[in-house]
Amino acid sequence: MQLPIQHLLNRTTWLKIHLYLALIAGFFFALMGLSGSISVYREELDELLNPKLVIEQPLGKRQSLDKIMAAVRTAHPTRYGSWTLEMPRSAHSMITVWYDKPRETFFELYAPLMVSVNPYTAEVVASRFWGQTASTWLLDLHTQLNLDGFGWNAVGILGLLLMLSIVSGVYLWWPGWRGILGALRIRHNDGMIRLAFDLHRLIGLFSASILLLLAFTGFHLSYPAVLEALVGASGMEHGETGRNIISTATPNNNPVGLESAEFVARGPFPRAELRRVTTPAGDSGIYRINLRQGSEINHRHPYTTVWVDRWSGQVKEVRDPAGFSSGEVFATWIWPMHTGEAFGSTGRFIWFLAGMGLFVLYVSGLLHWLHRCGKIKDREVSVAALRPVFYRLQEITYRIGLMLFRLAGSLLQRGKLYAPHIIKGGITLWQWLSSIIINRQKRLGK
Known about the structure:
The protein is an alpha+beta fold. It has helices at 4-8, 11-40, 42-49, 65-75, 134-144, 148-173, 180-183, 192-222, 224-231, 258-265, 326-332, 334-339, 344-372, 383-445; strands at residues 84-86, 95-99, 113-117, 124-129, 273-278, 287-292, 304-308, 315-319. An 8-stranded antiparallel sheet has the order 4-3-2-1-5-6-7-8. It starts with a helix and ends with a helix.
């Protein structure tokens, strides 16, 4: 009698799982990979398509935050409530001022108004809605398939299915220790289908670890409550602003301005970089100043936050990542690991290639399946014509290998600081998965 674990590890079973996942969800995997790759450079793409958003020659000092906010309110006098000023990522970029729930897109899942302001002149250059630009439309396609809440949940489930597809693919690839060298060969003399299949296996192998990480972090971005339950970290969802702090001071005729609020917020963190300032809404509203300390892994969405009362000018509360628990530290890694920003420009480029690789995996796997079904015919590959391409691929592969080596070194360095947290989170995850498997076996035994 075959034991359940033996049936689980049966190659034929895993082959069917891998095939059916590819046929059912493969197109969506490819779509998420392609849109995710492009979204890695979303801001650069936006500036490429909209040259007016690029400041060719920065002129002098930046205008005060109060003057910039006054320009935004002049351009949008009927939009009341809170605004968030996001600082530019470079000297040539605009300040982006966000209005979360404009009436035009109020019932959409996420479609804020984005106002681009020249920080040197306080000129409002553009006012656009999220989802109505090419770059934000692509990002919505990646995160929710442009289907709002239903698509958001579907993408999370696709992340789980992608993890299963990657694991099954690696299992099917494994040739044993003696066959590893042969499994790494690309046989270009055996026809187009053989070449496509070899590329499928090779690209899948080299991108498996990154794609697994992307699928894991993508799932938790869709379902943050799962991660919070696993590591015991609440309120750490991406974009989470922390507690809802309100003003307790008496309103007066001398409220604190944005510049003054920023100055007060820098008191606990004098060397931190300003990233966002959220203005108060109503008499009980309060300034929320978002800063980035040098030790934070998040660049665009750091967690250091100071709440400043606009009537009294006092600091109401401080959120300092230095005091985070192990679970909270682990949670702060999810977003920068998914986008690649945790590893700088090198990491972002490797993440871009991994997403493109997911698209290539789908196309090459589909070609192989269609050939086996008799839908397409094989054909010879002209080696002479492809030789320059192979030489170029060899050069690119060498460079990618070098970048991966450097990235591994960076991970090891960071691991010295975060290894205890990561190991603890991994043990918790393993215990959770083990309990599910044990309970499942008990139910089967009954």
